[in-house]
Design goal:
single chain, alpha/beta, Spore Coat Polysaccharide Biosynthesis Protein SpsA, Chain A, transferase activity, Glycosyltransferase, transferase, Glycosyltransf_2
């Protein structure tokens, strides 16, 4: 299987060499690694340009991580695509393990284990993944809405899965990876977990910004609400919204919690919460999932279906 890696980057000179090295050192090497520069003013382009084949540097002038990923996806020639951020790291067998999954499920999305990579006591250290645990029996979409996720560094998209998602949205400035993943899950694309491989999702030091911008600014909160409202609308069009009342309400509640100091954003999130008051069946189902999870029955199944 030929794998294309698309790496969007803006002023990533500090970490990009490490990210590229981890990709080129794979037991299943990538067919190509497309670095898509989004207007860097540091030495990012020089560092990437000095890397050997199959690294190639592209340029995207639209200031958006999603626009950079779209540019790379349009140029990519591989059978499958990974969108690897320029500050994250792949364990040496990640592509091999992800490719095994897509060999068996050629229209799916493959995902492997991930860990946090962050500074503690002045040194970069591996830490546990930081996201909401998935409940026992919870679908991938419901879990994703509730705060469980896999970052792009541990996800490999088959071509059919990527096309079915509708692709990256350049207008989406926050939670763009959640947006494309949840659209794929709503469309029925299965998310399949590997049995091996680990990726490392870097948490930037305090004061450093990623390409996606500020999550807790008013603009960032509005963009996050845009994503949840879009997913709610897609589910409503399918006649399935009532099945996701609990996780949709939870998604809006998380944003309302983060929106302190922005009354308009709080009001918008609370309106979403009111639209998604769960019925008795959904509440009962959520209670059972919580009970099973508390009993230790929750685990990451190898296969996660979209709905």
């Amino acid at each position: 299987m030929n794998i294309s890696i698309v790496m969007p980057v803006l002023n990533g000179e500090t970490y990009i060499a490490e990210a590229i090295d981890s990709a080129l050192a794979q037991t299943h090497p990538p067919f190509e690694l497309l670095v898509v520069d989004n207007g860097s003013t540091d030495d990012t382009v020089a560092i990437a340009s000095a890397c050997p084949a199959p690294v190639r540097v592209l340029h995207e002038t639209i200031p958006s991580a999603s626009a950079a990923r779209l540019k790379g996806a349009a140029e990519a020639k591989g059978d499958a695509i990974m969108f690897l951020d320029a500050d994250d790291i792949l364990g040496e067998n990640v592509l091999e393990e992800l490719a095994k999954v897509l060999a068996d499920y050629p229209e799916a999305i493959a995902a492997c284990e991930w860990k946090r990579y962050e500074i503690h006591d002045g040194e970069w250290q591996v830490r546990p993944a930081t996201c909401t645990p998935r409940k026992a029996g919870q679908s991938a979409l419901a879990a994703w809405l509730s705060g469980w996720y896999h970052p792009p560094c541990c996800v490999l998209w088959s071509r059919p899965a990527y096309e079915k998602s509708g692709g990256w949205d350049p207008a989406c400035r926050q939670n763009d990876d959640g947006d494309i993943m949840m659209r794929a899950l709503v469309a029925g694309v299965p998310l399949i977990r590997t049995t091996g491989g680990t990726s490392y999702y870097r948490r930037l030091p305090e004061g450093k910004l990623s390409l996606s911008g500020e999550r807790f600014s008013e603009q960032g909160l509005s963009a996050r609400l845009d994503v949840i409202e879009r997913i709610e609308g897609l589910l409503e069009n399918q006649g399935r919204k009532s099945r996701f009342g609990v996780p949709l309400r939870r998604a809006y509640a998380m944003i309302a919690h983060d929106a302190k100091g922005f009354p308009k954003m709080i009001a918008r999130a609370q309106k979403g919460m009111r639209r998604n008051e769960p019925g008795p069946v959904e509440l009962a189902r959520d209670f059972i999932m919580r009970a099973k999870t508390k009993a230790g029955l929750a685990h990451d199944r190898y296969e996660f279906q979209g709905g």
